[in-house]
Design brief:
By secondary structure, the chain is α/β, with parallel strands linked by helices. The protein has helices at about 10-20, 30-35, 40-45, 65-75, 100-105, 125-150, 160, and strands at about 1-5, 25-30, 50, 80, 85-90, 95, 110-120, 120-125, 175-180, 190-195. A hairpin with a 4-residue loop joins strand 5 and strand 6. The longest helix has 24 residues, at about 125-150. The relative contact order is 0.22.
Amino acid sequence: MNGLFVENRHQALDTVMGMIPPGAVVARGDSISIEQIGLLTEIKQRNQNVLIDPFETDAEGHWSKDRERMMRETFFADIFITGTNAVTLDGKLVNIDGYGNRVSAMLFGPGKVILVLGINKIVKDVPEALHRIHGYAAPVNATRHYLKHRDEMLGGLPCVKTGSCADCRHDWRICNYVTVIEGAMHRHKDRINLVIVGEELGI
């Protein structure tokens, strides 16, 4: 995997856009970080790439009826852009997903993966990463989706009600798929690219 450090979100935007050639089909995973650097807006304004966005919403905040189809189309995109829940000091990527679409696309499918993350995502090791995700990121993210997309099913999650992980077995839990990426096979060398930003981004 490749790692690149930039000082701020403005440099991050320029760096990532330089990694996306005109004509490439780009798919996105759920990520506040890529929104905060203005990446989606810039891709649309450049108008040189097809963008697959399963998280695009209507005026009322509801997801598209074609959301799951777009998630599946992600696997055939040239480039997948998203964030990561945590990166350890020895270079492991730790993520937890509800649907599994984001982590599975990181693992296999798109020819290039670009991950944007702030320094707040850097942790010591895998146990600390999991503690961070369960103790903070997952409850905040579940609450965000509940409020933003008005998905009443998520309102029943214990972490949304209390703000703390209860290691629940709720039908709508968002902590279903846990992955630790340690590297890649030689034939996929340089496929995963991290752009680490010298400020806090995302959850």
